[in-house]
Amino acid sequence: MATLLRSRCRVPGNIRSQRFNSFQPGLVLGFISLLSLGACSAGKPADKALVRVAVQPVASVDVASSVVLTGDIQARKVTEQSFRVSGKLVKRYADVGDRVRAGQVLARLDPREQKTDLASANAEVAVRESRLHLAEQNYQRQQLLLPKGYTNLSEYQKARSGLDSARGDLAAFRAQQANARDQVGYTELFAVADGVITARHAEEGQVVQAATPVFSLA
């Protein structure tokens, strides 16, 4: 029985050879196809990521031309306001940020020293005016006496010289008086133009020198 089964199950050698020969070409073709597919897949570039593009219809619109920046604003022209005389600052009438007009009083110095000088100049002028008045009277008298022979030419010329000298002295002291009067006026600081006070350089009670800036005006 076993011998019979083995004889039935044994496949002839030529049949196995035919089956293998018929299967081998198909196997080779399938392997080649797989290799070709792998090569094609390896050589194919990867798809690129899509870029989103915004599309808008063409239209005429207004575009703002202003630019916002940060920084310090500086005036094109700044004038330093200063006294023309030295003295103690007793009053300020303006401060930083104030808008002022030309001729407006900004500050004031203690004017006592300048007023003392003015009083002295006034007294000197009064003396010279009195001397001029006497010189004029003397000259007029010499003018009357000379034709009558009651005086000589020397006295007449002396009176004339005294008159000229008195006039010259009075003119000189009047100039000093005017200067002293100006000095009193210089104790007040006036704005030279319309503008805004941008800086303060002196405080009340401080002694300031002539030509030293007290305010900056822009």
UniProtKB/TrEMBL annotation:
One of its GO terms (cellular component) is efflux pump complex. One of its GO terms (molecular function) is efflux transmembrane transporter activity. Residues 84-218 form the CzcB-like barrel-sandwich hybrid domain. PANTHER family: MULTIDRUG RESISTANCE PROTEIN MDTA (PTHR30469), RESISTANCE-NODULATION-CELL DIVISION (RND) EFFLUX MEMBRANE FUSION PROTEIN-RELATED (PTHR30469:SF18). Belongs to the membrane fusion protein (MFP) (TC 8.A.1) family. This is RND family efflux transporter MFP subunit. The lineage of its organism: Bacteria, Pseudomonadati, Pseudomonadota, Gammaproteobacteria, Pseudomonadales.
